[in-house]
Design a protein that fits this description.
Blueprint: H1 14-24, H2 33-48, H3 57-64, H4 77-90, H5 95-99, H6 102-112, H7 115-123, H8 159-167, H9 170-179, H10 181-194, H11 204-210, E1 222-232, E2 240-245, E3 253-257, H12 265-268, E4 272-276, E5 282-284, E6 287-289, E7 292-293, E8 295-297, E9 306-308, E10 320-323, H13 343-347, E11 351-353, E12 359-362, E13 369-373, E14 388-389
Antiparallel strand pairs: 1-2, 1-4, 1-10, 2-3, 4-7, 5-6, 8-9, 8-14, 10-13, 11-12, 12-13
Helix pairs in contact: 1-4, 1-7, 2-4, 3-6, 4-6, 8-9
Keywords: RNA-binding, tRNA-binding
Biased composition (Basic and acidic residues): 163-178
Organism: Steccherinum ochraceum
Length: 390
């Protein structure tokens, strides 16, 4: 791997940070000619100092809103260079100032905590000391639901009847008058139908607004859970019945998962895992399952193996798990996914594991990468790369 010519334009200690990160494990200055050109372009822009001026942070924030990395979906020298160039600016900002640039702050914190970057930065201390951010008190970004569509008013049904009445005479007129109540009666029934009370359990219009719009990953409620008890389903030797603590006041949930053939029961006991907690409860061979265990399936299929997606070692039952990205990080998951809307099924094909084994959702349109994480670190599959998550 040879660095682009643009690297020579960086001043020390920034250049040393980039070269040190490469030695520590940053895998590439670009895996294709196109990526290499983009990496070189970014490094050249960063070397001028224009990208990271305080007055240009707003523009940079817009560029980073839909990105996890600057180039493609992996960490490159361009990311290390931008992190290093941003360091003297962001390290001086107060919370209100960095809250105003959420994408830049999220990106910077992500890169500064990458293992090879941290290793190189530590060797150059105190120039690139870890910058702490108060994310716990960051203002929430609310996801606005799409406005409800206006219903078209039905055409007046009485018009033809009135015309018929005017044209008729004598007995015909009487018949027209006798026929007139029919549409009125129908209308009365319709009005009664519209006045039916909303079903128990909440406002119907609010429920529609909650999951309006295109399905997005932040609609899915992911949480850290711990297996308290596990046994094989008495009527299905391929299913486990697990009692899982998700940190809820209502107590642990019962979950059924088809993992018997893929993960030995000894490896499941007391396991800390990721659970999908807002699926509609379902009966599986007579046993109600109230959540789903998130697993990574090898890119060659189930027969090649399945692994549990693992939260960070510091995670505790009930910890919130979210998707990186300003549009997702502070969004509130749906209380329950509507099976008819196929939200999980629509989003799921974008779930994967990166080269770093990190769990992520890749936007199929923009190709932006949104890692799946707790407030402390990213969730990972133990060994799989390019796995499907479900």
């Amino acid at each position: 791997m040879s660095s682009p010519a643009a690297l020579a334009k960086l001043q020390d200690p920034l250049r040393s940070l980039v070269t040190g990160s490469a030695e520590a494990g940053v895998s590439s200055y670009g895996q294709s000619e196109k990526d290499q050109a983009e990496v070189a372009g970014w490094i050249e822009k960063i070397s001028t100092g224009e990208v990271v001026k305080a007055e240009t942070l707003k523009d940079l924030d817009s560029q980073l809103t839909s990105r996890t990395y600057l180039v493609n979906n992996y960490l490159t020298a361009a990311d290390v260079a931008l992190y290093g160039a941003l360091h003297p600016v962001l390290s001086q900002l107060q919370p209100a100032q960095y809250y105003a640039h959420p994408a830049v702050t999220r990106y910077f914190d992500h890169i500064q905590n990458a293992s090879p970057v941290r290793k190189s930065a530590s060797a150059l201390a105190p120039a690139f000391a870890l910058v702490p951010f108060d994310f716990a008190n960051a203002p929430k970004v609310e996801r606005k639901a799409d406005p409800p569509k206006e219903k078209k008013k039905p055409a007046a049904a009485a018009a033809p009847a009135e015309g018929s009445k005017k044209e008729g005479k004598g007995k015909k007129e009487v018949k027209s008058e006798e026929a007139a109540p029919a549409p009125a009666e129908g209308k009365q029934k319709k009005e009664k139908k519209e006045k039916k009370p909303a079903p128990e359990g909440g406002n119907k219009k609010a429920a529609v607004a909650e999951d309006a719009g295109e399905p997005v990953p932040s609609m899915i409620d992911l949480r850290v859970g711990k297996i308290l008890d596990i046994k094989v389903h008495p009527d299905a030797d391929g299913l486990y019945i697990e009692t899982i603590d998700f940190g809820e006041e209502t107590g642990p949930r019962q979950v059924v998962s088809g993992l018997v053939k893929y993960i030995p029961i000894e490896q499941m006991r007391d396991k800390i895992l990721v659970g999908v907690c807002n699926l509609k409860p379902a009966n599986m061979r007579g046993v109600k399952s109230a959540a789903m265990v998130l697993c990574a399936t090898h890119k060659d299929g189930k027969e090649a193996g399945i692994e549990l997606v693992a939260p960070p070692a510091s995670a505790k039952p009930g910890d919130r798990i979210y998707f990186e990205g300003a549009e997702f990080e502070n969004a509130t998951p749906l209380s329950q996914l509507n099976p008819k809307k196929k939200i999980f099924e629509t989003v799921q094909p974008g779930f994967t594991t990166l080269e770093t084994h990190e769990a992520a959702w890749v936007n199929p349109v923009t190709k932006s990468v949104h890692r799946i994480r707790t407030k402390d670190d990213v969730c990972r599959a133990p060994t799989f790369v390019g796995a499907s998550l479900s």
